[in-house]
Specification:
CATH superfamily of the largest domain: P-loop containing nucleotide triphosphate hydrolases
Radius of gyration: 16 Å
Distance between the termini: 32 Å
Number of strands: 5
CATH architecture of the largest domain: 3-Layer(aba) Sandwich
Strand content: 15-25%
Number of domains: 2
CATH class of the largest domain: Alpha Beta
Order of helices and strands: HEHHHHEHEHEEH
Shape: globular
Helix content: 40-55%
Number of helices: 8
Largest sheet: 3 strands, parallel
């Protein structure tokens, strides 16, 4: 549900139009397109063509690399590009699937800070599917642990029992 509307059966572009932003696992940016062109693909659903200044304020490295091909960016920069592209659609809910995958630890902290900034600036709901517990604890208000498609543990960040959650994440 997004803003009271069930988006389950809608086509992808319709979900985006209803306010669902999505950053897929593996980022899936367009490697042959420039940073600017990648972000512009997120504008289409809103009928806009100009990238809001706020995007480049949040992601200054992307402003510096605006004309660089997405495929030539580092993994962390590509993740920032994927988030910027999703934000360009002006979502009400932002979904991120494994945003720390393939990202070096120092950049993971930057992405956590960035998500906290986005949440406070945009006042939007951010849903993250993630296995790196330290990252989750750094950004989450609520933590849900799923196993076999069912919620097996739920808590607020303030009351989160790291040891109990970590038992679910053990391989």
């Amino acid at each position: 549900m997004v803003d009271g509307t069930d988006v389950t059966s809608l086509a992808t572009h319709q979900r985006v139009a209803r306010g669902l932003g999505y950053v897929p696992q593996g980022r899936q940016i367009f490697g042959a397109m420039t940073v600017k062109e990648n972000i512009e693909t997120g504008l289409v659903v809103r009928g806009k063509s100009e990238i809001p200044r706020e995007i480049f304020d949040l992601f200054p490295i992307l402003a510096d690399f605006e004309h660089r091909r997405g495929g030539n960016l580092s993994g962390g920069q590509q993740q920032q590009l994927a988030i910027a592209r999703a934000l360009a659609s002006d979502p009400k809910v932002l979904l991120l699937d494994e945003p720390t995958e393939g990202i070096q630890p120092s950049v993971i902290k930057d992405i956590a800070r960035l998500l906290r900034d986005i949440r406070s600036i945009r006042n939007l709901c951010i849903v993250v599917c993630e296995q790196v517990l330290s990252f989750v604890l750094d950004i989450a208000d609520r933590i849900l642990v799923m196993e076999g498609g069912k919620i097996v543990h739920a808590d607020t960040r303030e009351h989160a029992d790291e040891a109990a959650i970590a038992r679910f994440l053990a391989v």
